[in-house]
Amino acid sequence: MFILRDLLVSLQTPFSNTELGRERSHWFVFTLLVVIVPFTSSMTSNLLRALRTLFGLDLDRRRFYTFMASSTLPWDRLWSVVWGAIPNPLVDGRLLVALDDSINNKSGRKIFGGGFFHDHTAKLNQPSYPWSQNIVAIGLLKIVKGRWSCLPLAFRFYFMKKDIDANAPTAQKSGRTVVFQSKMAQAVEMLKAVAAQFADAPVLVVADSWFGNNGLWRPLSESGFRFDLLSRLRANITLYELPPLRLPGARGRTRKYGARLGSVSDRASAFREQACSYSIFLYGKKREVWAYDRVLMLKNLRCPVRVVWVFRKTRWVAFFTTDLTLGVEQIIEYYGARWKIESGFKEIKQEIGSARSQTRNAHAVINHLNFCMMATTITWIYADRITADPQRRHIVKGRTSFAFSDVRRLIANAALSEDFLRLWPAPLKSQNNSFVSLLLRMVA
User: Fold this and answer.
1) How close are the terminal C-alpha atoms of the chain, in Å?
2) Are 204 and 89 a contacting pair, CB within 8 Å?
3) Residues 262-267: what's their mean pLDDT?
4) Short-list 357, 354, 400, CA closest to 376
């Protein structure tokens, strides 16, 4: 209860000290709370009903909708407060940041950010190019109560250049067409902001093979911050030995690359017999993994990297990192933890309910997704700060760790208690405890 109150009170500081600013800060923290509380999806109308019913806020409908579509909410400062509230953000002395993009299916054709984006996960009975929003996001990977978790840190809406050139209504913000940015440029912009917040820590960016190339690595390496990259290698990438040492008095320019070794696929066949067994914490438990590693050169990154081949019975996969100090166990475990950003997208879209929102105004769309992502991060911070491990409510075979929904339920119990409302530094109307208890039983 005190943990939740302290987290929310800190989020009021970025607002101005005027009467309007204090009112908006009060609305903000309780809107964030009702997004977390697992009663309904986070559509604006549902949030308004929850604020009135659960917390007794006397809100005018028109003013609340204006607040939700405000263009002046201080999101940059709010996110900075949230980043600073994350306990023990480093893993082995470095900041692990997952990077990926995802689509958010929509139905309204006038929704900001909408477009026909490719869905690489589409099934046979689903369209390959659904009408959706494309979101580039980063999240902090860290272990919370013995399990890997991904805490959303920032996001950007990606717009196709053809839609911007055509002045599409879905690419209009405050009457102006948005400026085109590639996904790589958006990712670099967000990563640099995080690196500036945690200036004393090196940042290891964990991404899939789409982002794991020089389009991301070059601007990061030239940014002035300490970045490293961990990604998956494509099978057709050509590998080279490290350049040979230059002998004293040798003529000609220094060689940048050593002997050509062939493709990643060719080397996998050659190195399979040299693989060693490693015990690695992967996907929730200790697993035995056969792997082989070697420091080589990549021409597309123009730098030495540590390449790790992981072998299964009939298949293999290869990872690489620019951080040569990482061990084989760390490389495999960190890349395995990258999957948590995919789980995070599910939490935001389905459990928190960002996919159900049909807001169309650009600022309303941006604010709503900010609320959903910040609510997810606050939930994981709360789970990390409490003393006891959350208990798993619904037993799943093979899983012993708690779920995201279990933490949301703990927050709901704390937020709807009389003690929390009594300690909150603002006058609130009394609650009907029997009605709140009924709601809690309904969502059990």
Assistant:
1) 21
2) no
3) 92
4) 354
